[in-house]
Structure formats: structure tokens, C-alpha cells
Amino acid sequence: MSRIITLGEPMVLFVADQTGSLEEVDSFSRFVAGAEVNLSIGMSRLGHEVTYITQLGTDPFGKRIDRFLQDNKIDTSYVKYDANYLTGMMWKQKVEVGDPEVFSARKNSAASHMSLDTIESLNLDGAHHIHLTGILPALSMSCREMVYKLLAEARTRGIQISYDPNLRPGLWPDKEEMVQVINDLSTRADIVLPGIAEGKILIGKESEKEIAEFYHEAGVQTVVIKLGSKGAFTSTADGKQFYTPGFPVKKVVDTVGAGDGFAVGVVSGILEGLPLKEAVQRATAIGALAVMSPGDNDGLPNRDELKAFIDKFDPLSV
Q1: Is position 26 annotated as part of the catalytic site?
Q2: I need a labelling partner for 91 at 20 to 30 A (CA). Which of 24, 27, 121, 302 fits?
Q3: What interhelical angle do 141-157 and 175-186 show, nearest 10?
Q4: Are the CB atoms for 235 and 216 separated by under 8 Å?
Q5: From the candidates 174, 260, 298, 311, which is the catalytic residue?
Q6: What is the C-alpha to C-alpha distance for residues 251 and 228, in angstroms, rounded to an integer?
Q7: pLDDT per position as a tens digit, 98-157
Q8: CA-CA distance, 222 to 158, in Å (whole number)?
């Protein structure tokens, strides 16, 4: 299988055990969260080798995250600790319908103090793919500089890059800076994975075809746009375009992490040499499985679970 490298900010996640506003809930269940963590776990469960780069506090939560990553067979040899700062934390509302309220305590976190030194000793030999999101460059200028450096090195070496905008407006000084930086970073990738709502924010266009055209004109080879329960729209630089229907969802438990699961499907499928249509079908399947579970990554399937789910519904055969 392939070797994938990603870097980001993992956080301890507390999910409310009861519905209601976070200020009223009395008890929470603990998970580990983070967009890149979710991607790493999903890829690992499908048998790929994943190296996760981050910086944690020396607090109990940082140690818990490190152990959690190792338990999920993720390479943590580039995980560093900083005793001066705390590990990020997040609280999430339990809801019956819709997106949950999320509150995070990540300002000045250990991960936000990553810098060029963090990747100075990174060995890219044998790496097949690098996956990045728009979260890390929002945390600090030093994180942003590190992301640009890694992208430049990956492009020089011809390593395939996927980029998920994963917009977090609350982490940015303003919308204009967010749009400029995210679009600039996205156009340095081979595969871009925006949601349709994100595309409208970043491009100012209403249609998925116009959004895809923007990225193609900037040099991106493959654009896969998430359309929620409707599935996805895929466009390639050589003019191929197609829609992929979504899989049926019995009950939406939590929508957070679905986009990361979608990225797992696209990236793993492409790396395994699947036709692009099958890779995107896998993505919609994993996204559907993700929303039926309470944590951000506990619903991500292994290979047998994924096959069983696709074989049961297979919207492409309808």
C-alpha cells in the first residue's frame, strides 16, 4: 500500500451525552478529533501507511492523542511535544438533526507553534501522497510558512498532493485573507476537494461546474466537489465530468468528519489505481458511514466494512 503524509492539529473532543446547548449539558464522552487525524485513521484502516506530523502539549490530553494515533497504526515518529503550551480541546453538541454546535479552545495551542523546524528532518523518500487542509495555515503564520514549504518540496519531488479547504472562518482574521490563502494553497495541489458551500465562498460562483473551472484554470488536475446527501461532482483538467449519487443514510447522528471520510475515499481509491468514478463512489460511501456515528472518526470503515456497505447499496448500479 501507499505511504501518505499529513500534518495538522489533533484535539481532544468532548461530545455531549445529552441533547441541548453545551452550557446545559452535564456529561460528555471523550474522543480524539481533527480533520487530518480523521484522514489518517481512515487511510490506516484501509491498510495504507500514514505518517502524521503535529505538536502536542505535555498535558494528559497530548499523551492520550499520541497513544490513540499509535493504537490506530499511525506513524508518530514526527510528533513533537512542547511543554510551554497546551493541547487543543473541543466540545461538541449532541443533536437529533442538523449540524452540532462546536466550541474549541485552541488559541495559542502547542500545534499552533509548529514552524519550519517541525519538518526540518522530515524524510519524504518513498512518500506517495501528501494530504493537507485549510485549517493549519489559519492557526499561525509559522504554521502557514511550514505548509507552503512542504507543498513546494512535494511539488519539486513530484509527490501527489490533495487539498481539502475545510473552511474554519472563526480561525481567520477576516474572510478576505481566508479566501486568498486557501485558494493560493489549493492551486498548488493535484486534487482539490471543496464542499459546494465552500466553493461558493471561495470562488463566488453558484454552480459546481464554475467552481471546478476556476481550479482547472489555476492548474489543478482533479476537482471533486462534495454535494452533501446528493453525492459529488467530479471534473478533470482533460474535460471529463460526472456526478456520483450519495449513499442512503439510515440516521444522521453527526455530520462532523464526513468530509474527511470523503477525502479518505478519493485519496485511497486513486492511490490504489481505481478508476476515478469508483474512487469517488468509495468517497460517498465513507462519507455516509461517517455521519451515522457520534465521534469524528469512529465510523470510518475497514476494508471489509466498506465493501459490505458498497455492495449492499451501490448507487452506481441503480
Answers
A1: no
A2: 302
A3: 20
A4: yes
A5: 260
A6: 14
A7: 778 889 888 899 999 999 999 999 999 999 999 999 999 999 999 999 999 999 999 999
A8: 16
The answer as to whether 157 is a domain residue is yes
pTM as predicted: 0.92
CATH code at position 294: 3.40.1190.20
Whether residue 116 lies inside any domain: the answer is: no
C-alpha distances (whole Å) from 35 to each of 27, 145, 171, 218, 309 are: 24, 19, 14, 25, 23
What's the rounded Cα separation, in Å, for the pair 286 and 13? 21
Phi, psi of 157 (to 5 degrees): -85, -5
In order, the DSSP letters of 94-113 are: E-SSSPPPEEEE-TT-SGGG
- Per-residue pLDDT, 318: 38
Query: In the structure, how many helices (H) and strands (E) does the chain have?
Result: 10, 13
Domain containing 246 equals 3-110+126-304
> What's the total number of domains in the chain?
1
In 3D space, the residue among 114, 101, 135 whose CA is nearest the CA of residue 259 turns out to be 135
In a domain, 309, yes or no: no
Q: Is residue 283 part of a domain?
A: yes
- The DSSP code for 59 is S
The cell 469524528 sits on which residue?
A: 296
Length of the chain: 318
